[in-house]
Design brief:
This protein is α/β, with parallel strands linked by helices. Helices cover 37% and strands 23% of the residues. The strands form two sheets. Strands 14-13-12-11-7-10-9-8-15 form a nine-stranded mixed β-sheet. The chain has a six-stranded parallel β-sheet with strand order 3-2-1-4-5-6, with helices on both faces. Helix 6 (109-122) crosses helix 12 and helix 9 packs across helix 11 (321-340). The two termini are 40 Å apart.
């Protein structure tokens, strides 16, 4: 049985504006959400909550503690830079709220583990909006692979390349000053998608990240990652923010799945299948196009609906905070691999992080 939930929107600028303008309104129209307050430290962006969510000025706060004290709510969003996620989670749990958060869980592995443990101890629910995995093209590709028509997956290739080398090109300035921007702000989606398509947890990962002299980033604007999954599937990831040209930017990634019976290619939101042909040295022409699946909600709109279904008593959303530790472990294992120059056993890396988190 569905009900209407009261929520507080934390973050109304940048991606928070997208929540106010695009992600929340359809779920509000469905009668499932009432936004009772909004928070942002910059009062100038309160206008986004006022215009798109209909909040009066006195329900828009710069003081998060005051907002939570003065407005009873069932859950809150967390749409602020990753370094501040844990602060918001702590306040939400202190007010007995469930949580839906932008990725990643936190800006460190230790912080991510702490958050997951705190949520579990409090007996609350927390979802993470891994929006790209639930986009139309990736969902269609996932279903094509799960159908069995392509046969067993041998390996996957994912490419995300952009020409955003100058300061401010990649939206919010914090992405240009933070460490390992590609991994934490970009590959967090792409490695998650690859793992989902592989259908298995990652066993071993090797990565290199770097920043060319012309890239105006703190570090790690470029990266290559190789992965082997527990079911034997392998994957290669190419990520770039500072190339001369962008070929597969946000929501237009290239993914190739090499399978037993077919090669499946997703490129700029178009998916084709190429059945096996004996003695074929190179392909000619286009493959058979796969029609994209249709539904009313995608990405964060769909994930918010899944979160509400979970609150209604349904099964945990796929990107619940505990399961999402697997995705966070991929990016921080990649950072560790780059630092050490060695492959990382991902499940051992996650196990150690959990143990250290329990001791802290």
């Amino acid at each position: 049985m569905t009900r209407k939930y009261r929520m507080i929107q934390v973050g109304t600028g940048g991606q928070g504006n997208a929540w106010c303008a695009r992600f929340l309104p359809s779920n509000i129209a469905d009668g499932r959400i009432e936004v009772v307050a909004a928070v942002d430290i910059n009062p100038e962006v309160h206008i986004n909550a006022q215009q798109h969510l209909g909040l009066p000025p006195d329900r828009c706060y710069t003081d998060i503690e005051r907002a939570f004290d003065e407005n009873r709510a069932d859950f809150c969003s967390v749409v602020v830079p990753p370094a501040f996620h844990e602060v918001v989670v702590d306040i939400a749990l202190a007010h007995d709220m469930d949580i839906i958060s932008e990725k990643p869980i936190a800006d460190t592995m230790a912080g991510s583990v702490r958050i997951a443990a705190k949520v579990k101890r409090a007996g609350k629910k927390m979802g993470v909006t891994m929006s790209h995995r639930f986009d139309q093209d990736k969902t269609t590709l996932r279903q094509a692979l799960r159908s069995g028509q392509a046969g067993a997956i041998d390996y996957l290739v994912c490419r995300f390349t952009c020409g955003l080398r100058n300061f401010g090109d990649w939206g919010a300035h914090f992405r240009h000053t933070m460490e390992e921007a590609l991994m934490i702000e970009g590959a967090v989606h792409h490695l998650d998608i690859v793992a989902d398509l592989a259908g298995s947890n990652c066993d071993t990962l090797y990565a290199q990240t770097w920043n060319p002299s012309w890239g105006e980033y703190g570090s790690g604007s470029q990266g290559h990652v190789m992965m082997t999954f527990e079911n034997g599937v392998r994957a290669i990831y190419e990520g770039a923010k500072t190339n001369a040209s962008g070929f597969n930017g946000w929501a237009k990634e290239y993914i190739r799945a090499e399978c037993e019976h077919e090669t499946l290619i997703m490129d700029n939101r178009r998916i084709e299948r190429f059945p096996y042909q004996p003695k074929q040295y190179s392909r000619e022409g286009r493959g058979e196009e796969i029609s994209l699946q249709e539904q009313s909600k995608w990405r964060n709109e769909w994930l918010i609906a899944q979160f509400l279904d979970w609150l209604d008593g349904g099964p945990p959303m796929a990107t619940n905070v505990e399961d999402n530790l697997q995705s966070v472990a991929l990016i921080f294992a990649a950072i560790e691999s780059n630092r050490s120059g060695q492959p990382v056993k991902v499940q051992e890396f996650l196990r150690r992080a959990r143990e250290e988190g329990e001791r802290s």
